[in-house]
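Memo to structure team: turn this sequence into structure tokens by end of day. - J.P.
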Amino acid sequence: MIPSKPSAPPRPRAACRIASTADELEVHHRIRHEVFVVEQGLFDGSDVDSHDAEPHAVHVLGLWGGEPVGVVRLFLLDPAAGLWQGDRLAVLPDYRVRNLGKPLVRFAVATAGHRGGRLMVAHIQLPNVAFFERIGWHKHGEVEIYVGVEHQPMAIDLTP
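Reply from structure team:
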């Protein structure tokens, strides 16, 4: 009898969920701080703004093997128009090769769509425009400067 080969341990998988506790929200903000304040130097001290306190703001955690390593935020811009904005997409450096950005963006798009959204907009740093185009987004205006960095406004239709 040939001995069976031991099975390989399961590979970690990406998962996304809405931060629903104070501790999860704190982790969400800590990841954003690490990427946008410490690593990229885009904000002085904190990237938290008034959108974080809005009642329709959704703070999402991206998990790898159950550990939070990425985030995205979305909020309602115009209820009558079903217009949502996605922003603060961040993945910790050691996990960027795991392609967690795609499930985070798709989760944000699906969440806005399930909440009656018709269009989602975002301001994308120029090196990330091709990534967003590959997952269905399109340019939506001219390049603009935000926190001293060029960003491309982009959008995606949320209706089926």
